[in-house]
Design brief:
alpha+beta, Aminopeptidase, globular
Length: 160
């Protein structure tokens, strides 16, 4: 797969779910949907919000969304971690679609983008409840459990 960027938005027109997977421009209406989805799925249940400075830093990240028509139904982002490593962050899928393959499609797409950009490894801070999902995709736990945003996580990684 060859990578297209920013204004060449649709990277993979469809997947097994029939959704468009694409890179989202920071600050766009699609990005606003992404922030809202991440808030509803990842932050609100913990009583947390986003700081503006956190959102501003995301302009440097690769922002990925899965859309059904114009509705965002899943997302994640990739941050350069140095040393040919990219960090997956803020993976979220709307509640009604969890367990239906959308997360797997997002992960495969993120891995393809990472490989095409020359990265050799993906790391992440996975919520303990999501470790099994990532293990099924070939990720390995790399370290002891720790607390982040008030809940337990593990660092996980996968060579690309």
């Amino acid at each position: 797969m060859s990578i297209l960027f920013k204004n060449d938005i649709i990277l993979e027109p469809s997947n097994e779910n029939g959704m468009a997977l694409k890179i989202i421009d920071h600050g766009s209406d699609e990005y606003k949907q992404m922030v809202e989805l991440r808030y509803q799925i990842l932050r609100k249940p913990l009583g947390l919000d986003f700081l503006q400075e956190e959102l501003d830093k995301e302009a440097e990240d690769i922002l990925i969304g899965a859309f059904d028509d114009d509705k965002l139904e899943g997302c994640c982002m990739l941050s350069n971690a140095g040393n040919k490593t990219v960090r997956l962050r803020q993976m979220a899928v709307i509640a009604g679609l969890q367990g239906k393959g959308l997360g797997r499609s997002l992960m495969q797409f993120a891995e393809n983008i990472s490989r095409d950009m020359g990265y050799r490894k993906i790391t992440m801070h996975a919520r303990t409840t999501a470790v099994g999902f990532y293990e099924k995709l070939g990720y390995k736990v790399a370290g002891e459990e720790f607390t982040e945003v008030t809940i337990p996580h593990f660092t996980m990684e996968k060579a690309l």
